[in-house]
């Protein structure tokens, strides 16, 4: 569709109208209100008698009513103004901040008005740009005409006097949903096309495509009137996007006149090469496939050319995770969807185990409560997911954030199951009718099912599998325990029982649609969001002579949100014959075009079983039997012991302190006697300091490189290590004025922090914990109390909590548990003599372990002992609210404790003395 002058006029009128409304609400409304009702600020505050009189007397003249309406109107205007200021600040910072729910509609109104108002200016600019472009085109065509040899113009001029005409860049974009093709972009608007996903905004798309969110009106203007797929509305409001919409990302003009293409997601970020920044070292050309390293994400090559070597860092295409895939050392090939789901499952598993973890009051084993190991395949998938954040220099989400986001997720509608070259292949779950056969059929079905299982929680999807097929897909897995733990997995005795279950659900949904006079299940979900209507997927082997019932179900699948994944040939739908590596060898059926020469994700049976075990524990369900020992190397490094973090004592004169201090509890920061060092220290230097703080006795160069820069070639990693060391020494010498010390010692092939020159807060904490351990051996209670008292003050935050890396996870978690156990031990020692101090210590402990239920139980007991029943109830409510964040509830033991503690008891001085036996 051509963007005509009529369209521009309509956009200009709409933008001018929105601008008028916005200016009136912001400026005109208070003027009108002031003229009608006067100033909203009273001359003096009314007395209580005046207020009572006004409220109690009959409002015959409606003065009280009008005053109330006036007050509400001024209040709404104040909120509107504050929202405008907030949005202005967010615009300048290029960051969108959602406000609390009660005022969010007003925030959306402000955004819509501003977005629509910009159409007036962008349309004028577009008309002016079109006129300028027309003039330039005419001039260029004149030059070309003159330069034509047939016309005799500039034929005899030297070639260096002729400026070549730049060729606009071509687009190699392909749609995300391969089963639907977006409208081809018109010749007047060279562009790329983007399929809207849930959570997309025009601001974010403009920022990702052009580097500035303020250019979103260009995208909105370019997409007026574009036809959309069936059931998806057109783009009419810049503040409202619908998943599945097709958006053109037009080529914009650079200041010099050259066209600026939208950023291709595959384009790597350019490092800074000016000023004091050093360009990033080159990446390794291939992957070092050691089991402990992060698996390298790769993109499937086209079938007509050999695969290129896998890159050593994640190939992340901006924020479009669906284009990323990962090869695991076991031979599995998974997409970012499965990696993300398993990363969430690992986070939820940790939180549920934290909730049940008892406080260990033995100083000899602080922080070492045994837990079943998380299977290696799940940890590898988590590392792959986290690598995508590091690739774009984004802060890694915490376990709490991952688990919270998962609870807010909606039902899965599509699933990326493979790639065709560098283009993902996505299938729609409702109406899916796909058969997988060949050597790789089960492996591909295993990958699809495993990805869907963690997404099937909270009534979002249901997977129905006959027991024989489940055992064939996941040999060795506890199918019964998994089905009991996952509310979205249904194991039936046979295919007939599975079909009966689907038919019953089909009739149920049909009656609901007829009763509510709605066309399909998606409309029914929107009509009644509380009604559990998950997407149903049948995964089964269907015999050739018994496919009539399943075919009838899949024919109605799109309307009723049903789908079928058939293990074997499937004549009634699309059937794929797969090689062992997931490559499509042959295909037949209605959707074969998108699968030709494609490659599907696939999982080995061992990887799938380990992943499903993590999905099970993510629901808080632990297997009855202990997990079998892992055959591969664990990815969770053993944290250093408390005594291992204490350097040998240094001889110091009384009152003398080291010239520098390193803070790694909380954000990593260097201090001198003058204060913190806030400039000059590079990012990699901070990482090196934190890593060396974990190893007071020193580490080899290979250990440093293997932990901090495993994805770099050795030469580049050595350069980075030397650069970081030089940066640390230079910054400290400048800050302290001491030019001779080295601060970072490199001797006998090991790097370590010089303890005579740098104090480390982590070493002070671990020295205190070591002293408490010695006091236990001495049997002196007072000495233990005095040794443990400083722990709460010394632990100022999580280890290096301003950045996230795999090598820091284990020591950070171990240290947190150690401190919580030490605080619990301290409470046990002082609660009889100093209950108030013990209560304050426990309240600090639950800020470190938000979900550890035994800590809340101890707090409730102390509050009851101090005669505070209301505090007991509030503590229980706080526990309930926090456990709700991970979709859990307090144990029956805690509920029984609450009931027991709320029973009225006589104070100790009123109780009858015990009768001695």
Short description:
The chain has 29 helices and 24 strands. It is of the alpha/beta class and 917 residues long. The chain has a seven-stranded mixed beta sheet with strand order 12-11-13-14-10-15-16, with helices on both faces. Strands 20-19-18-24 form a four-stranded mixed beta sheet.
Supply the key terms:
alpha/beta; Rossmann fold; Arc Repressor Mutant, subunit A; 4 domains; four-stranded mixed sheet; 29 helices
Query: On the 0-100 scale, what is the average pLDDT?
Result: 76
CATH class of the largest domain: Alpha Beta
- CA-based shape: globular
| Count of beta strands | 24
How large is the share of residues in beta strands?
Answer: 5-15%
The residue fraction in helices comes out at 40-55%
Distance between the termini: 98 Å
Taking the sheet with the most strands, its summary is: 7 strands, mixed
Quaternary structure classification: single chain
InterPro entries: AfsR-DnrI-RedD_regulator (IPR051677), BTAD (IPR005158), LysM (IPR018392), LysM_dom_sf (IPR036779), TPR-like_helical_dom_sf (IPR011990), WH-like_DNA-bd_sf (IPR036388)
Transmembrane segments: 12-36, 64-92, 113-134
Pfam family, one: LysM
Biased composition (Low complexity): 253-268
């Amino acid at each position: 569709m051509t963007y005509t002058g009529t369209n521009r006029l309509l956009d200009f009128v709409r933008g001018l109208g929105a601008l008028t409304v916005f200016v009136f609400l912001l400026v005109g409304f208070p003027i009108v209100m002031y003229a009608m009702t006067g100033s909203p600020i009273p001359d003096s505050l009314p007395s209580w008698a005046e207020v009572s009189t006004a409220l109690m007397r009959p409002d015959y003249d409606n003065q009280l009513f009008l005053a109330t309406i006036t007050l509400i109107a001024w209040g709404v205007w104040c909120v509107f103004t504050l929202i405008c200021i907030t949005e202005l600040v967010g615009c300048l910072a290029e960051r969108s901040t959602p406000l609390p729910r009660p005022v969010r509609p007003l925030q959306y109104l402000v955004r819509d008005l501003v977005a629509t108002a910009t159409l007036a200016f962008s349309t004028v600019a577009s008309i002016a740009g079109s006129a300028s472009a027309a003039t330039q085109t005419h001039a260029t065509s004149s030059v070309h005409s003159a330069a034509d040899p047939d016309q005799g113009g500039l034929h005899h001029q030297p070639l260096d006097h002729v400026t070549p005409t730049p060729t606009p860049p071509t687009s190699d974009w392909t749609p995300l949903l391969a089963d639907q093709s977006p409208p081809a972009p018109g010749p007047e608007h060279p562009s790329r096309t983007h399929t809207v996903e849930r959570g997309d905004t025009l601001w974010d798309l403009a920022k990702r495509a052009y580097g500035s969110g303020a250019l979103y009106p260009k995208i909105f203007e370019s997409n007026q009137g574009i036809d959309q797929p069936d059931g998806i509305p057109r783009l009419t409001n810049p503040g409202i996007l619908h998943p599945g919409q097709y958006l053109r990302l037009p080529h914009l003009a650079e200041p010099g006149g050259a066209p600026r293409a939208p950023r291709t997601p595959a384009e790597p970020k350019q490092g800074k090469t000016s000023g004091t920044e050093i360009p990033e070292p080159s990446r390794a050309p291939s992957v070092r496939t050691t089991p402990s390293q992060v698996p390298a994400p790769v993109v499937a090559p086209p079938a007509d050319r050999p695969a290129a070597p896998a890159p050593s860092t994640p190939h992340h295409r901006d924020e479009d995770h669906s284009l990323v895939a990962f090869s695991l050392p076991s031979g599995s090939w998974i997409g970012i969807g499965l990696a993300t789901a398993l990363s969430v499952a690992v986070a939820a598993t940790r939180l549920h185990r934290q909730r049940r973890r008892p406080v260990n009051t033995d100083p000899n084993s602080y922080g070492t409560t045994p837990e079943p190991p998380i299977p290696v395949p799940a940890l590898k998938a988590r590392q792959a997911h986290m690598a995508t954040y590091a690739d774009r220099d984004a802060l890694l989400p915490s376990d709490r954030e991952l688990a919270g986001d998962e609870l807010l997720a909606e039902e899965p509608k599509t699933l990326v199951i493979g790639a065709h070259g560098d283009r993902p292949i996505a299938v729609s779950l409702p109406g899916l009718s796909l058969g997988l056969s060949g050597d790789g059929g089960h492996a591909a079905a295993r990958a699809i099912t495993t990805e869907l299982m963690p997404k099937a929680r909270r009534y979002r999807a249901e997977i129905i599998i006959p027991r024989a097929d489940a055992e064939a897909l996941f040999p060795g897995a506890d199918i019964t325990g998994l089905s009991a733990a996952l509310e979205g997995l249904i194991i039936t005795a046979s295919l007939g029982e599975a079909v009966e279950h689907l038919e019953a659900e089909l009739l149920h949904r049909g009656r609901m649609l007829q009763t509510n006079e709605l066309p399909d299940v998606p409309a029914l979900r929107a009509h009644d969001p509380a009604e559990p209507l998950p997407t149903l997927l049948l995964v089964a082997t269907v015999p050739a002579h018994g496919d009539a019932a399943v075919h009838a179900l899949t024919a109605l699948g799109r309307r009723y949100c049903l789908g079928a994944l058939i293990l074997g040939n499937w004549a009634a739908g699309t059937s794929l014959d797969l090689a062992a590596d997931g490559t499509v060898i042959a295909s037949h059926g209605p959707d074969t075009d998108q699968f030709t020469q494609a490659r599907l994700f696939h999982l080995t049976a061992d990887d799938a079983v380990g992943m499903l075990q993590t999905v099970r524990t993510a629901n808080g369900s632990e297997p009855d039997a202990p997990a079998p020992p892992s055959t591969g190397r664990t990815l969770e490094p053993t944290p250093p012991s408390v005594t291992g973090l204490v350097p040998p004592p240094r001889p110091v004169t009384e009152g003398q302190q080291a010239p520098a201090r390193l803070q790694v509890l909380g954000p990593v920061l260097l201090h001198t006697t003058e204060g913190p060092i806030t400039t000059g220290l590079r990012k990699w230097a901070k990482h090196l300091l934190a890593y060396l703080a974990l190893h007071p006795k020193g580490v080899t160069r290979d250990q440093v490189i293997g932990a901090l820069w495993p994805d770099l070639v050795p030469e580049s990693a050595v350069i980075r290590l030397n650069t970081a060391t030089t940066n640390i020494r230079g910054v400290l010498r400048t800050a302290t004025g001491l030019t001779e010390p080295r601060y970072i010692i490199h001797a006998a092939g090991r790097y370590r922090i010089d303890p005579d020159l740098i104090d480390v807060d982590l070493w002070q904490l671990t020295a205190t914990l070591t002293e408490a351990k010695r006091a236990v051996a001495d049997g002196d209670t007072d000495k233990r109390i005095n040794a443990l008292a400083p722990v709460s003050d010394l632990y100022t935050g999580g280890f290096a909590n301003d950045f996230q890396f795999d090598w820091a996870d284990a020591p950070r978690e171990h240290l947190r548990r150690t401190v919580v156990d030490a605080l619990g031990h301290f409470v046990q020692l002082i609660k009889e003599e100093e209950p108030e101090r013990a209560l304050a210590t426990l309240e600090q402990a639950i800020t470190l372990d938000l979900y550890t239920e035994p800590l809340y139980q101890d707090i409730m007991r102390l509050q009851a002992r101090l005669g505070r029943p209301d505090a007991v109830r509030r503590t229980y409510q706080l526990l309930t609210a926090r456990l709700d964040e991970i979709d859990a509830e307090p144990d029956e033991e805690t509920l029984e404790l609450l009931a027991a503690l709320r029973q009225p008891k006589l104070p100790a001085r009123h109780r009858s003395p015990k009768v001695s036996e």
